[in-house]
Design a protein that fits this description.
The chain is an all-alpha fold. The chain is 77% helix and 0% strand. It is built from seven helices and no strands. The N and C termini lie far apart (36 Å).
Length: 148
């Protein structure tokens, strides 16, 4: 599958997710908090009374990474290699929480892909693989105990 095909399948998936779910933010956050319940307190603390706005901003950032990791992988790698340590050291957000939010976004969107849409499923597998490799690289930028 060439790059143009992958991008077309990604666009089809994102369009379908928007049609099926509307705003993905509440769906992603529900799954994320189910997987990382202690992260909810962090969002409340850092949201300064505007938790929903912070959640929306973080999902927007996740979607940006998902939409462009195939097209501009170096840009996304640079973005995450700067953002992950900042979140860890400044905001006390462990790598596992950060990656968990991206994984939840992938799972929610990919969950709208029909079982017989093999190409789309392959694209989401590739996105997960690429972003996972970037997060693995980010581990080297953090102390060993940062992956919770």
């Amino acid at each position: 599958m060439d790059r143009a095909e992958k991008l077309a399948l990604l666009e089809a998936s994102l369009t379908r997710a928007a049609e099926v779910l509307g705003d993905v933010t509440p769906h992603v956050m529900k799954l994320y908090y189910a997987r990382h319940p202690s992260a909810a307190a962090s969002f409340e603390h850092h949201g300064l009374g505007k938790t929903a706005a912070l959640e929306g901003e973080m999902i927007e950032n996740c979607l940006y990474c998902l939409m462009y990791c195939l097209e501009r992988p170096a840009e996304i790698e640079i973005l995450l290699e700067n953002s992950v340590p900042h979140h860890h050291f400044t905001l006390e957000v462990p790598l596992g929480w950060y990656q968990g939010l991206v994984d939840a976004a992938i799972d929610v969107i990919a969950g709208t892909v029909p079982a017989d849409a093999t190409g789309e499923r392959q694209v989401w597998g590739k996105i997960r693989e690429r972003l996972g490799a970037i997060f693995t690289g980010c581990r080297d930028l953090l102390p060993e105990d940062a992956v919770a």
